[in-house]
């Protein structure tokens, strides 16, 4: 075990391992590209849907059950299904990652909207605000903390799952995991897993700190 961790430390800190198209730096950039793009697409889908459901109160059943759908989604199975339909491309990976991220964004956006005090909305309407003004000037600002939490959770889930890009012969940190398994190289497998975990934790801490900074004046 000691030898394994020693070899892992050498693998992670080797200058050669960080350079070139197969180096950690390049694979990390690919992994972040996949993750950020998928999360942005999911946000473009999930935020309007969550805002609409939360504002109108219609479709709440959909929002509530999307969370269970996201947890039960067979990500690799979805990648294979889209891969068979579209051929060798990044589309299967992005479809799976977006499908994974949308439920967290929709449910948290919906929860944030429904948490807004109805008296506050009634007061805004009483002052002559129209529906879209109530939505964007009252409900959305008050719901932002929970909405940002949903975006953060979605991004972390996507980062942890973006290793599936290597399953269909693309890059990212998952390359080390799948190549290591194929080569029976346990150090490489552990190295890839550790890198993914570190990236996920660092992003979570950074976004959590940003969220606390942005809403530091909000009362509990």
TrEMBL record:
The chain crosses the membrane at residues 32-53, 60-85, 91-111, 153-174, 186-207. GO terms for biological process: glycine betaine transport; transmembrane transport. It comes from the Bacteria. Residues 28-207 form the ABC transmembrane type-1 domain. It is found in: Cell membrane; Membrane. Keywords: Membrane, Transmembrane, Transmembrane helix, Transport. The keyword Membrane applies. The keyword Plastid does not apply. It is a multi-pass membrane protein. SUPFAM superfamilies: MetI-like. Gene3D superfamilies: MetI-like. Pfam families: BPD_transp_1. One of its GO terms (cellular component) is plasma membrane. Belongs to the binding-protein-dependent transport system permease family. This is ABC transporter permease. It comes from Streptomyces spongiae.
């Amino acid at each position: 075990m000691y030898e394994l961790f020693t070899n892992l430390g050498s693998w992670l800190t080797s200058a050669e391992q960080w350079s070139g198209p197969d180096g950690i730096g390049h694979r990390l950039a690919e992994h972040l590209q996949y993750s950020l793009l998928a999360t942005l697409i999911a946000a473009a889908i999930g935020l309007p849907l969550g805002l609409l459901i939360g504002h109108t109160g219609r479709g709440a059943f959909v929002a509530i059950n999307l969370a269970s759908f996201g947890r039960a989604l067979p990500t690799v199975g979805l990648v294979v299904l889209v891969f068979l339909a579209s051929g060798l491309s990044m589309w299967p990976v992005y479809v799976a990652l977006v499908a994974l991220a949308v439920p967290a964004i929709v449910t948290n956006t919906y929860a944030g909207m429904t948490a807004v005090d109805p008296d506050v909305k009634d007061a805004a309407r009483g002052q002559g605000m129209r529906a879209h003004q109530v939505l964007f000037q009252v409900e959305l600002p008050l719901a932002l903390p929970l909405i940002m939490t949903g975006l953060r959770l979605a991004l972390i889930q996507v980062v942890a799952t973006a290793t599936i890009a290597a399953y269909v012969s693309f890059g990212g940190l998952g390359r080390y995991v799948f190549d290591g398994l194929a080569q029976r190289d346990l150090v490489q497998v552990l190295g890839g897993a550790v890198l993914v975990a570190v990236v996920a934790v660092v992003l979570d801490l950074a976004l959590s700190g940003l969220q606390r900074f942005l809403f530091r004046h909000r009362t509990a």
